[in-house]
Amino acid sequence: MVKNIVVLGGNSHPELVERICASLGLTPCSRILTKFSGGETRCEVQDSVRGKDVYIIQTGAGKVNDVLMDLLIMISALKTGSARRVTAVLPLFPYSRQPDVPYKKAGAPMSRVGPDFSVPPTPGPGIARSAGLDNGTDMSGLMSKVSLADKAIDGGSPVKKSAPNGINVSQSRPGTSGPGSPLTRTFTTHNYENPALVSTFQAKPGYKQWVAQAGTLVADLLTCAGADHIITLCFGILYTGGATYDLHDSQYQGFFDVPVDNLYAKGLLQRYITLNIPNYKDAVIVSPDAGGAKRASAIADSLGLSFSLIHKERRPTKITDRQSASMILVGDVSDRVCILIDDLIDTGNTIFRAAKLLKREGATQVYALVTHGVLSGDAPERIKNSCIDKLVTTNSVPQDENKAQLGPKLDVLDVSQVIAEAIRRSHHGESLSALFAYN
Amino acid sequence: MANEIKLLSGSSHPELSTKVANRLGIEIARTTSLNYSNQETSVTIGESVRDEDVYILQSTAPGDVNDGLMELLIMIHACKTASARRITAVIPCYPYARQDKKDKSRAPISARLIANMLQTAGANHIITMDLHASQIQGFFNVPCDNLYAEPSVLRWIRENMNVEDCVIVSPDAGGAKRATSIADRLNASFALIHKERPRPNVVGRMVLIGEVRDKVAILVDDMSDTCGTLAKAAALLQANQAREIIAIATHGILSGNAIDTVNNSCLSQLVVTNTVPLGDKLERCPKMKVIDVSGTLAEAIRRTHNGESVSYLFTHVPDWD
Fold first, then answer.
1. Is A438 domain-assigned?
2. A203 vs B30: CB contact, 8 Å cut-off?
3. CA-nearest residue of chain B to A101?
4. Among A343, A355, A266, A251, which residue's Cα sits nearest to residue A310?
5. Which residues does chain A have within 8 Å of residue B77's beta carbon, measured at their own beta carbons?
6. H or E, element range at A85
7. Could you tell me which residue ranges the Ribose-phosphate pyrophosphokinase N-terminal domain spans (chain B) (predicted)?
8. Closest approach of chain B CAs to the CA of A108, in angstroms?
9. Separation between Cα atoms, residue B11 and residue B117, nearest integer Å
10. What band does A69 get if pLDDT is binned at 50, 70 and 90?
11. Considering chain A, what is the average pLDDT of its residues?
12. Is the dihedral of CA B222, B227, B228, B234 positive or negative?
């Protein structure tokens, strides 16, 4: 029994709250957290928190904006209720994965795996050239179209108007990302009737369109609401769409004006490898993108496994003004078990394509170990049909539905113990570094 | 060109933004926002805002308050990091305005939290309308202009009603000041309904103070949400033999069963302004009338941009036509 400590759970992950409270030997603080009929969050804390050390557990899953507002309002309610210290425990930090320009670049979250695969070479000394995967845009096809169109222009033929650049070729492909495809996101646009407008959104000429980065804002808002301390669970590096922030010891922590602790799920994932993967000593750790190389190689190093990397090449092509991404494997995986390591799986495109490439390269089995299994949209359905043999994730976001859908294909690791221990140590002012330890 | 008005529109109320932009004779800046499949909001800005005077108009879409708010905060933050000279959040209907005090132990003062969040995100100025409690202005460390819909409401009453026939009724003690101000300016008589509110969104017992017999009773309030209060007040006025009962509210949030409540009540008309998107509610409620306040908002934006006084708008409807 830990005294003078209050654990308050949000609506996002009641099961995790229960587990954490069970390991701490506490009952969660009773509260009302609903919505007024107008959609505003209503929060009332019913137990006294005066002078208490309060931990709010809320994870960035489900309706993220509601979850975040609930959290901010709870923090502010506790502050006005004279809590001594308020710690926000965010197993999955909302808006931590910062947005890429979503519908322009191939390889960005909104693109999809195409039916065709070109054959880019895999570089490496003494390694046979292998088949790679591209982003579903058959460049040779596009090129030929373009040259045809050019010819038409040269000839002054009226065909020119009907085939302006040949860009539209990719749109006619079945399942290409677009308003009608199953992968289409729910859009909030200025024109509710016509979500297609979003994909035709054009920046002013001469101005590079860019997407707002909300990560720092969320950090600021938490501090502004009155959080004294923040605990979040991550792998060490957040993949942020091109750039990487090492959450443990550099920039992201610097965004906050309050102490931030990052717990590593690495130990958990590592133990899973040693206990559950037969002959893991012969397996290869694979990072699905260059941004995650550091975290994957950390695991490979501490387990003494070999390591390889999938490199996503983005070649801008002047013909289409689109960027093309092709995946290239660096390293040898033939006849071996592959373990893909990533921080977060959302739509899963990167990982699916990586798994496909690995299978193509002769991997016997592909495991995917991912800290946060968000699996939004139809991702669970697509995992079933993907080349991944087993997906391992933590319960940092609710996994019950995913588990029900995926059955034995999904293994869920429990992080409540780690979080509970972090809360206990933080409350008693003990060192948290044991939880950061790499083993 | 630096330091021009840039009007950005959130996704909650595009019609109002368009009206304001038309009044100002400018185009809405190119932005788009969408939700990722993991429900995070992503805002894209398609033109430069460097050194511009940025106005971001975002209202409160009923049922979607938190999404709208996050979108607004992300837009403000985006403009701040994109070096806008000044960022003004134009929030016709301030969210969480009703949670403005610690009314019970450990209740959050969410209105204050929103004020802090807007400032944290980078807003340099706030323009809002008919705050539920004008003290909310004090929650800000930056200028907060609270505009009134009252001039527009007065104009509507003068144009559509016979003023001698009217009694202005406040449905609760809190709104007495607002109602008396209208009654004074119309030179009409005034009545008040006293009510007890046991829980939020639930209406208790009511008592009428004043005379409404054979008169047109005009209920005046700052917002109509579930309309429970209005319906009960209307019933009470009818029991006191008012000839006709009309309700005028600035913010027509009309959540839950509000439309059915109004349709089944003895109100003959419900008049709201267009601070909040009404969607299909106009079709579903034939009793509803809308007053356009885009002129006031546009004029406030123009005056703020040019450094002119805004006080004129507290008593007058700007003439744009």
1. no
2. yes
3. B44
4. A355
5. 212, 214, 216-217
6. strand A85-90
7. 5-122
8. 12
9. 19
10. very high
11. 73
12. positive
pLDDT beneath 70, residues of chain B: 1, 197, 203-204, 320-321
Number of domains forming the structure of chain A: 2
pLDDT of residue A235: 53
Q: How far apart are CA A392 and CA A372, in angstroms?
A: 10
Which residues constitute the domain of residue A85?
A: 5-98+213-264+417-433
Does pTM surpass 0.90? no
> What residues of chain B lie within 8 A of the CB of A223, using their CB?
120
What's the average model confidence in pLDDT over A170-175? 34
Q: Does B113 touch chain A if contact means CB atoms closer than 8 Å?
A: yes
**Cβ distance of B43 and A212 shorter than 8 Å:** yes
Domains of chain B, earliest start first: 5-149+294-315 (3.40.50.2020), 150-291 (3.40.50.2020)
Q: Is A199 on the interface with B (CB under 8 A)?
A: no
Tell me, yes or no, whether A48 lies in a domain.
Answer: yes
Structure tokens at B106: 């450990």
- Residues whose CB falls within 8 Å of the CB of residue B261, separated by 6 or more in sequence, listed in order: B226, B227, B228, B230, B231
Q: A220: domain CATH number?
A: 3.40.50.2020
Per CB-CB distance under 8 Å, the chain A contacts of B99 are 40
Residues of B within 8 A of A36 (CB-CB) are 200-201, 225, 255
Q: Is A280 in the same domain as A428? A: no
The percentage of chain A sitting over the pLDDT mark of 90, rounded to a whole number, equals 33
Distance from the Cα of B8 to chain A's closest Cα (Å) equals 11
List the single range of A38-52, A169-183, A200-214 with lowest mean pLDDT: A169-183
pLDDT score for A104: 38
Q: Which residue type is seen at A167?
A: I
